[in-house]
Design brief:
The protein starts with a helix and ends with a strand. It is mainly beta. The chain has 3 helices and 33 strands. The chain is globular, with a radius of gyration of 26 Å. The longest helix has 25 residues.
């Protein structure tokens, strides 16, 4: 009997000791300051951050902690990756898919990123943060902004058919060359323009044009106060309205979360996102809680997002968007969708070639072994068959070849489409 009690006691001791070790592991704290990363230095933290991330990448159950304050990141020392991102750019608009990422987390598992109210200030053009092939990852109590947002803003002070006097937002750096206003930033100039006009009294956004001002004669009356002389009679500008203008090319995005599982963003403030908003691409289970997309009040800016604020392409599991706010986006607050790929060739009874047809969506890993797809008539969008994917072969960035576990269904036609229904989420917005 004593021997049995001793064996039981030993088992209990080992069990409790194992749990204690696990508990200690869950509380493993990594302080950014221990890697020389301090707030409010106004220096580039990228080299130190990258070194830190490399060292902790394989640590189990990590909480990465930043002190409150401002951290600056420049693109020169930041990692670069080739990312094909849904709904961003065509081959002509942006031939290179090399992206620059301020905070990059690759293949991380069981990590919490605690900002403690930290503000990460982005310089140039970058993805604010990216989670690539991560699992059980959470980022919280953190803010992002651009030192020089790629959106330029000006408020109309006086408007007549021939004269406009406008005040440019202090963040919108500019110059006047040969009496022409030219916006520029850190390593870029605005080569093309896409404009949205805002009526603050109505909280209304309208498609507009920058060309009337671009073609007019510009004179600086005082810093950030410009007089435009030209023909404005055909344009319905009014005093107090704000013209927001940007280059239309989506060469980066605000945040990129891809091929990841169990992702949580909590109390995250995105004060500016270039190119697109927060892009979720083929993720499983994503929660956005208290994610705010708005400019910082003290900046006086109106726009915080280049395009969609929250974008989900080909995700599955549960998407939860709760207690969030979007104010100042040039496009949708929320966009959740899959992608139809066009059938271009019947290779055999169990093999088809398919193609990405959306100009700004291609090159993605859109199917995986074991996924279920629907065959859909292109003209009616009626489903007429289902199959399972046995093998995926990438032909090029636009074309894939799928080998199926069963034969192609009756009614099949070249030009029909397939949809990956395995990657179809349920969505709660509250």
């Amino acid at each position: 009997m004593t021997k049995q009690v001793n064996i039981f006691s030993l088992f209990v001791f080992l069990f409790l000791n194992l749990n204690a070790q696990t508990s200690l592991e869950t509380e493993k704290i990594i302080n950014a300051k221990d890697y020389g990363i301090y707030p409010n230095t106004f220096e580039n933290i990228a080299p130190l951050f990258n070194k830190m991330v490399d060292e902790i990448a394989h640590f189990p159950l990590v909480k990465l902690v930043f002190e409150k304050g401002r951290y600056d990141i420049w693109p020169e020392s930041s990692p670069k990756r080739e990312y094909f991102i849904s709904n961003t750019s065509t081959e002509r608009e942006c031939p290179s898919k090399i992206k620059t990422i301020a905070l990059l987390f690759e293949n991380f598992k069981d990590i919490v990123i605690e900002g403690n109210g930290a503000l990460f200030m982005i310089h140039g053009k970058m993805i604010n943060f990216a989670f690539d092939h991560c699992e059980n990852i959470k980022i919280q109590n953190i803010s992002f902004d651009y030192e020089r947002p790629t959106m330029s803003e000006l408020t109309f002070d006086e408007v007549t058919d021939r004269i406009i006097i406008a005040t440019i937002n202090p963040s919108s750096t500019y110059t006047i060359i040969d009496n022409k206003l030219k916006f520029y930033g850190e390593g870029w100039t605005m080569k093309h323009d896409h404009a949205i006009l805002i009526d603050p009294e109505l909280s209304a956004f309208y498609y507009s044009k920058f060309s009337p001002l671009r073609k007019s004669k510009a004179t600086e009356l005082a810093p950030f106060k410009i007089k435009f002389k030209g023909d404005f009679s055909r344009f319905k500008f009014k005093k107090g309205q704000v013209l927001t203008v940007r280059d239309p090319i989506r060469d980066q995005v605000g945040a990129f979360i891809a091929y990841s599982k169990n992702v949580v963003l909590q109390n995250v403030q995105m004060h500016y996102m270039h190119g697109m908003g927060i892009i979720n691409q083929f993720n499983e289970n994503v929660t956005l809680d208290k994610v705010i997309v708005k400019p910082r009040k003290e900046t006086g800016r109106k726009i915080a997002a280049f395009a969609d604020c929250f974008h989900f392409s080909g995700c599955k599991g549960q998407i939860i968007i709760e207690n969030c706010e979007t104010g100042g986006g040039h496009d949708d607050p929320v966009n959740v969708h899959g992608t139809h790929l066009k059938i271009t060739k019947r290779v055999s009874d169990d093999k088809i070639n398919i193609r990405f047809m959306h100009g700004q969506t291609y090159g993605l890993d859109a199917f995986f072994r074991g996924d279920t797809l629907d065959f859909v008539h292109a003209k009616s969008l009626q489903i007429y068959g289902t199959a399972q994917v046995k093998e995926v072969k990438k032909i090029n960035d636009r074309d894939l070849q799928l080998t199926l576990t069963n034969t192609i269904p009756k009614g099949f036609q070249i030009g029909d489409v397939v949809e990956n229904i395995t990657w179809t989420p349920s969505v709660i917005i509250r």
